[in-house]
Every structure is written in structure tokens, then in C-alpha cells.
Amino acid sequence: MLNNSQYIDKLRSSGLRPTKQRIKICEILFNSQKTFHFTINDLVEKISKATNDKISLATVYNTVHAFKKKGYLKEIPINSDQSYFDTNTSHHHHFYDESQKDLIDIDDADVEPVKINTKIPGKKIRSVEVLVKVEDIKS
Amino acid sequence: MLNNSQYIDKLRSSGLRPTKQRIKICEILFNSQKTFHFTINDLVEKISKATNDKISLATVYNTVHAFKKKGYLKEIPINSDQSYFDTNTSHHHHFYDESQKDLIDIDDADVEPVKINTKIPGKKIRSVEVLVKVEDIKS
DNA sequence: TCAACAGTTTAGAATTATTATAATGTAGAA
DNA sequence: TTCTACATTATAATAATTCTAAACTGTTGA
């Protein structure tokens, strides 16, 4: 749990001006012990519940992308009509529940290291992500 | 390499009417030895090169989704503004080249089986997909 | 063979997510 | 405090996808 001055430091140290919109978004994204997944839409709703000052949609997009670029958020690839982001930036994987359209973390420790026995010349690996799609047993 | 009557059988046997639009799209997608990746946009371009009869965009979407549902195409999850599809429906994985925005198959044999040591009650695994993001070594 | 129906295609409108624009506002350095 | 570069904002623009309703066409069965 960080207080505002810690968010200000965090933003400033990564070259982002600590504007009140960014601080508010930090509070919403990083104040919880638990990490979580969200879409831009989810975040807009959280903001409108958390404050009376509206933050424009464009700012929400800009801020999320800035935070992603700085490594404070990860984007999660799912077959989806919208982008999912994750406040958990540690290396981990995901279940995607196709029945409930729900995304669930898989701790990195719960996945045996993935061994890839091939490579592409001139390229280096940036990340290895596992997506496990699940569905209701009965279906 | 299948000829049209084989596509007609294939469509009919899966409960899809063999209309001329669907047959044309089959020719474009499944006539090659090599499997490939495409976006809806790519497919529309291929169609317009391959034939003088235009196929409407809505039909392309409908057909691709119908083929996906029947298991003739797979959708590939990537952080992207558009959906990627794969004519290779066998179990395999992908490299995604972030420098070139290019998608490359990884043969299933080149990935050691992924072991997940956790599960979700009431859910069964439908698929396990590995996405390896790569970039230029120099970057 | 052919009429009838259900499934398809179609053009275009509608919707949704995201990005661009340009004017206004503001944090931070001097 | 003032200035300047960076941010925010509302709105428009764009792009991908889905919806709609009318026209069309395989297929079935008489």
C-alpha cells in the first residue's frame, strides 16, 4: 500500500509527471495487495466510482499505455475484442475460462519451465507466455 | 490440394451449405501445401486478387467464424488490434516477432510438454498455448 | 422437375475500441 | 513568478467487427 507521495516519487523517477490524473489512476491500480486484471472500460468505471473529478477517456488510454511502457502493467494476449491488462507484472501465466470469460493467474511456480527446442536466427526471446484455456467440465 | 468437389463434400459433411463464396474461400485457405496466418484484411485482399466476383466483408467474417467453429481454422491470441487466424489447426505454438510484427509457427515437437501443477475446480483444460515473443538481438 | 423454405449473402448502417487533433491547462525549471 | 514543455480534454476520426433487413440460392420432398 503506497501513499500518494510514494506514487509521486514513482512517477517522477520514471520520467512521468505526477499529474493528479496519473496519481488517481495509480491509487486505483496499485493500492491493493492483490493484483488484478482489467480492461480500459473496467478502469473507467473504477475511476468514476472512486472520484467525482472525471478523467477523460483519452487520458486513461494514454496513462495505461505509459504505465505499460514503463513496465508497471502487462498486456495479456487473449482472443478478445478488447485489451486486457494485468497489474501483476511478475512473470506468470494465465487460465482463460471460456465459459465465464474470466482470466485467472497461474503462478510461475505452478508451471514447469517451458523448453523451446528451436530458435530464430538474429532474434532473442523476450518472453514466454502460456495461456491455458479452460471450460466447464460438463460442456 | 483438394478440388472443388472435395470442398463441397467437406462443407456439406460439416453442415455448411457449399455456396460459391464458401468454396472460393476454401480454395484460398486450403489449397496450399503450406499453412499460413492471416487477418480478415489479408483474406479480403487475397479474395480480390483471386476472383472478379466480390465477396462482401460480412460474408468473409461469417465464413471465417463458421470455419473456426468447425475447427478448420484456429484463432491466435496476440496483443493486437486485429484477430489473427491460422490454417494450421494442429496443436502447435507461436513465435511472435515484435520487431517485424510477424507470426511464426513452432512445431509442437519443438516444445516440451507444458506441465501445469494447478487446476481450477469444475473446469477442464481445452488447450495450452505457448506464445514466445522475440525481438531483434541488437534491440 | 420444381416449388417452397431455411439458410446465406449482401450493402450499408450501427457499434465498439482505439487513436488523432488541437485547444486549454499545469508541473517544474529558471 | 513566469515560461515552456508536457498533459489533459472534448471531440472527431479511424478501424475492426457486428447487425439488419432485403434479396438470393441450395436443398428437400412432392
Walk me through this protein's architecture:
In chain A, 33% of the residues lie in helices and 23% in strands. In chain A, helix 2 crosses helix 3 (40-50). Chain A has four helices and six strands; from the N terminus they run ααβααβββββ. In chain A, a hairpin with a 7-residue loop joins strand 2 and strand 3 (84-86). The model of chain A has no long low-confidence stretch (mean pLDDT 93). In chain A, the strands form two sheets. Chain A has a three-stranded antiparallel beta sheet. With 139 residues, chain A is of the alpha+beta class. Chain A is globular, with a radius of gyration of 17 Å. Chain A has helices at 4-13, 20-30, 40-50, 57-70, and strands at 37-38, 74-76, 84-86, 93-97, 102-106, 123-136. Chain A folds into two domains: 4-76, Orthogonal Bundle (Arc Repressor Mutant, subunit A), CATH 1.10.10.10; 91-134, no CATH class. The A-B interface holds A 75-80, 83, 95, 97-99, 104, 106-107, 109-112, 114-118, 120, 122-137 and B 75-80, 83, 95, 97-99, 104, 106-107, 109-112, 114-118, 120, 122-137. Chain A binds a DNA duplex (30 and 30 nucleotides) through residues 17-22, 39-41, 54-59, 61-62, 81-83.
